[in-house]
Structure prediction request, 40 residues.
Amino acid sequence: MPGELTQGITNQMPVIIANIAAFFTQCIRSLTSYKSVNYL
Prediction:
C-alpha cells in the first residue's frame, strides 16, 4: 500500500509542480501590476 501511494505521488509530481509554478507566477504578476499602479 505505501509503495502504491508513493508511486501515485511520483506520477502526480509534475502536475503538482506545474500548479505551484502557476500559482507563484500569478502572485508575482499581481504584485508587479500592483506596484506599477502605485508608481503611476
Q: What stands out?
A: The longest helix spans residues 2-39. DSSP finds one helix and no strands in the chain. The chain has a mean pLDDT of 84. Residues 1-40 form one domain.
